[in-house]
Write a structure and sequence with these properties.
This protein is mostly helical and 98 residues long. It has helices at residues 3-9, 20-33, 37-67, 75-84.
């Protein structure tokens, strides 16, 4: 038994609506990878959830840090610094201010 088979035994069923174009591409990919469309869809959903959960956790941490009064860099300074990237007058990284 493959590891993914044992994971499927501990799964629940969910219905999602996808466009015919996406369905066709999923079927082709599943055939090429010798996997089921359900396996690929579940894998894609798991990757999406993990990536966005990580991102949301970092955003919550940053907001908590900002609310705590911790030193930070004003937004306009960050924007000015980023806009200077790749130019002849690239600015140094701005320093945090309390």
């Amino acid at each position: 038994m493959k590891p993914e088979d044992s994971e499927m035994a501990k799964s629940t069923t969910m219905t999602v609506r996808i466009t015919p174009d996406v369905s066709e591409k999923l079927d082709m990919l599943a055939r090429d990878m010798k996997r089921s469309g359900s396996y690929l869809a579940a894998d894609a959903i798991a990757a999406y959830i993990e990536r966005h959960a990580w991102q949301m956790a970092r955003i919550r941490e940053a907001l908590e840090e900002a609310r705590s009064g911790a030193p930070g860099v004003p937004h306009d300074e960050v924007v000015r610094w980023l806009k200077s990237w790749g130019t002849a007058h690239e600015l140094p990284r701005p320093e945090a201010k309390s």
